[in-house]
Amino acid sequence: MKGMISLASRSKFKDPGFILMIVMIAYAAFVFIWWPTDIYMLDISLVAWLMFFGLFFWFLLAIIYSLWIETIESSND
Question: Which among 35, 41, 48, 54 has most CB atoms closer than 10 A?
Fold first, then answer.
């Protein structure tokens, strides 16, 4: 409970959730920028490749977020 109070008192711009949300929005914007183009690699649309690799990217972001929050909470104790 003590770690939650210290996270609430931190700047919102230094919050890991806010930073990783910006990264997710940037990746989604990148995918949607390429959406109307007809670029194919191995007979599969580039957008499909980006969405496929995005699954691993989201998983990596979830791991980074978890480790980042644990580091912040352990440094506050």
Answer: 54
| In the predicted structure, residue 7 carries a pLDDT above the cut 60 | no
Rg (Cα) of the chain, in Å, rounded? 17
d(CA 75, CA 77): 6
Q: Is the model's pTM score more than 0.85?
A: no
Closest CA to 41 of 29, 57, 52, 32: 52
Residue 42 region by backbone torsions, left for phi larger than 0, else alpha for psi between -120 and 50, else beta = left
How far apart are alpha carbons 61 and 69 in whole angstroms?
12
Residues forming a β-bridge with 45 = 40
